[in-house]
Design a protein that fits this description.
The chain has 279 residues and is an alpha/beta fold. 34% of the residues lie in helices and 18% in strands. It folds into 2 domains: 122 residues, HUPs (Rossmann fold); 90 residues, Rossmann fold, CATH 3.40.50. Bound molecules: glutamic acid (GLU). InterPro entries: aa-tRNA-synth_I_CS, Glu/Gln-tRNA-synth, Glu/Gln-tRNA-synth_Ib_cat-dom, GluQ/Sye, Rossmann-like_a/b/a_fold.
């Protein structure tokens, strides 16, 4: 079967060369095998997503010479799908309401740490709070793992990986201010769009443990994963975290050649001022 890949940016800021790398790799993997390359805008975070970033993303991709197949999909238009998935997990007794604020969680000094930082200490698990008060929904990870048993997924670079969703703890599946979290929406959409190969930065490697678990709980297929090394600024910091990392839009508006940039990234020749993280 010809592969289907996707580029799934969040329109919360401007794209930089690291995003370009993900988009190019996903595009080329599909095109090399006569497959499909999709574009999905991950705009469930209504407070941070901006329409002007969407327009910029489309212009940036065209500037790089990348064309996507079919209409652009917006997660903000697919909320009922995520609600239906959450309903199923709720019916299975695998999620619970959480009223904690960020400050509450930060204040629980005893919280253990996982690959994504402090783990949720489980404060609201089994707690009878007021459902009328704003609350998130968290997965009861220990119960979920008991339900699925051991799981594995395949990464093109790292090989067969034993899923370890417990290392991320009781992650949020629906937020106080958004009906789905990244983990839930991305899992539902990759299955709904029949994505066979997920190409994305190594910063999302650990999240795949959770996505694999959700696939098993929701009866969805498991794609192949291709986590690529992140691009860093010359000072070694991640582009996303770095102030002043050049945005693709800046290069485009300055008259630089996007297709030449894409060719350079494909050949591993990084633009001036970039480095590649060791995988
Ligand atoms: N929307 C995510 C981001 O911009 C990427 C999602 C993914 O590739 O799984 O970081």
């Amino acid at each position: 079967m010809a592969p289907t890949t996707r580029f799934a940016p969040s329109p919360t800021g401007r794209l930089h060369a690291g995003h370009a790398m993900s988009a190019i790799l996903a595009h080329d993997l599909a095109r090399a095998a006569g497959g499909r390359f999709l574009l999905r805008i991950e705009d469930i975070d209504g407070t941070r997503s901006r329409p002007e970033h969407v327009a910029t993303i489309l212009d940036d991709l065209r500037w790089l010479g990348l064309e996507w197949d079919g209409p652009v999909v917006f997660q903000s238009q697919r909320l009922p799908l995520y609600e239906a998935a959450l309903d199923r997990l709720r019916a299975a007794g695998l999620v619970y309401r959480c009223w904690c604020t960020r400050a509450d969680i930060a204040a629980s000094a005893s919280a253990p740490h996982g690959p994504e930082g402090a783990l949720y200490p489980g404060t609201c698990r089994g707690r009878a709070g007021d459902p009328a008060q704003p609350h998130a929904w968290r997965i009861d990870m220990a119960a979920a793992v008991r339900r699925t048993g051991p799981l594995a997924w395949h990464d093109a670079t790292a090989g067969s990986i034993a899923a370890d969703p417990l290392s991320l703890g009781d992650v949020v599946l629906a937020r106080k201010d958004a009906p789905a979290s990244y983990h839930l929406a991305v899992t539902v959409d990759d299955a709904a769009q029949r994505v066979t190969d997920i190409v994305r930065g190594a910063d999302l490697f650990a999240a795949t443990h959770v996505h694999r678990l959700l696939q098993a709980l929701l009866g969805l297929p498991t794609p192949r994963y291709h986590h690529h090394a992140l691009l860093l600024g010359a000072d070694g910091t991640r582009l996303a975290k770095r102030h002043g990392a050049p945005a693709l839009a800046d290069m485009r508006l300055a008259g630089e050649d996007g297709v030449a940039l894409a060719t350079a990234l494909r050949s591993g020749a990084l633009p001036l001022g970039f480095a590649r993280a060791s995988a």
